[in-house]
């Protein structure tokens, strides 16, 4: 009985530590997307965490666009942004001081590293 209680407490602690860590994803993050063709695009996201939902905005050439279908699982997340009727899928991982994000638009795939913008 004690072993089961200790194991359950440990698993709950791990869950809450992971949840607390992903809460630090809140705020503004910036990076530079480099394509295989050599083009560079500045990235700016304003992430907001609400439970296991990721919301916020992404800066695009058309202005700030909402983050759609944002989901968080542990320290990973997914969302999409729609620009010019085109869905741009994002998947990423939170590392504490940086965020790795994979961006897919059709067959084109790119990776970028984001850093927090200090308030």
Task: Briefly summarize what is shown.
The protein has 119 residues and is of the alpha+beta class. It contains 1 helix and 9 strands. A hairpin with a 2-residue loop joins strand 2 and strand 3.
Summarize the topology.
Layout: H1 2-23, E1 27-34, E2 40-50, E3 53-60, E4 63-66, E5 68-73, E6 76-83, E7 86-94, E8 98-105, E9 108-116
Antiparallel strand pairs: 1-2, 1-9, 2-3, 3-4, 3-5, 5-6, 6-7, 7-8, 8-9
3D structure, described in words:
Residues 1-20 form the signal peptide. Keywords: Signal. This protein is an alpha+beta fold. It has a single domain (2-116), classed as Quinohemoprotein amine dehydrogenase alpha subunit, domain 2 (Lipocalin). It has an 8-stranded antiparallel beta barrel. The N and C termini lie far apart (48 Å). It has one helix at residues 2-23, and strands spanning 27-34, 40-50, 53-60, 63-66, 68-73, 76-83, 86-94, 98-105, 108-116.
Which key phrases capture this entry?
Lipocalin; signal; 1 helix; alpha+beta; 18% helix; 8-stranded antiparallel barrel; Glycoside hydrolase; 119 residues
Sheet with most strands: 8 strands, antiparallel, barrel
Q: Give the tally of structural domains.
A: 1
Please give the CATH class.
Mainly Beta
Q: Quick one: overall form?
A: globular
Q: Kindly estimate the percentage of residues that lie in beta strands according to DSSP.
A: over 45%
Q: Tell how many strands the DSSP assignment holds.
A: 9
Query: How would you name the CATH homologous superfamily?
Result: Quinohemoprotein amine dehydrogenase alpha subunit, domain 2
Q: In the CATH scheme, what's the topology name?
A: Lipocalin
Return the structural class.
Answer: alpha+beta
Organism: Mucilaginibacter frigoritolerans
Keywords: Signal
Signal peptide: 1-20
Protein name: Glycoside hydrolase
């Amino acid at each position: 009985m004690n072993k089961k209680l200790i194991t359950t407490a440990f698993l709950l602690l791990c869950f809450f530590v992971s949840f607390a860590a992903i809460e630090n994803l809140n705020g503004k993050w910036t990076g530079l997307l480099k394509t295989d063709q050599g083009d560079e695009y500045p990235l700016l996201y304003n992430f907001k965490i609400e439970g296991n939902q990721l919301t916020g905005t992404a800066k695009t050439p058309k202005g700030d666009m909402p983050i759609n279908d944002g989901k968080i699982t542990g320290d990973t997340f997914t969302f999409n942004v729609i620009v010019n009727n085109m869905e741009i899928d994002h998947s990423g991982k939170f590392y504490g001081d940086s965020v790795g994000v994979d961006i897919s638009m059709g067959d084109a795939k790119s990776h970028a590293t984001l850093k927090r913008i200090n308030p």
